[in-house]
From TrEMBL:
It comes from Halobacillus litoralis. InterPro entries: Sda, Sda_sf. This is Sporulation histidine kinase inhibitor Sda. It holds the Pfam family Sda. It comes from the Bacteria.
């Protein structure tokens, strides 16, 4: 996950939720988002996608 851009990481997070992937996988993505301090991009992505 370290090689993913911030944008791709956020997209992956939303897609994992949409596809109802495992909680463990979603939590792993969430931890990386928190580690990068980019939580604000989650809401920004939702706003852009609509």
């Amino acid at each position: 996950m370290k090689q993913l851009s911030d944008s791709l990481l956020i997209q992956s997070y939303h897609k994992a939720i949409e596809l109802n992937l495992s909680k463990e996988f979603i939590d792993q993505i969430k931890r990386e988002i928190q580690k990068r301090s980019i939580q604000h991009l989650i809401d920004d992505y939702i706003f852009q996608v609509g």
